[in-house]
Task: structure prediction
Amino acid sequence: MKKTNVTISFDEEKLTALRLYMEQKDLQLEDELTKAMEGFYGKHVPSNVREFIEMRSGEPADPAPRARRPRPEKKEQAPADTGESP
Result:
């Protein structure tokens, strides 16, 4: 797939500090930003669109994990109130 560059504005001192502390952990800012962008893509782009893009680019399509919805709990019905007192 063809790559493109994304440019953002960020405070210079914060960026310097971020790079310094990430280097201490053997992390690269660019790698972490790429992971974050992949996460945004997976979160916001519908799975059928992602599959189409992967198919067009020739990449193997990873089956998207489907979110499981909890089954609705069955509610037991209380005996109907007939208006009579016991």
Remarks:
- The chain has a mean pLDDT of 86.
- The chain is about 45% helix and 0% strand.
- Residues 29-44 form the longest helix (16 residues).
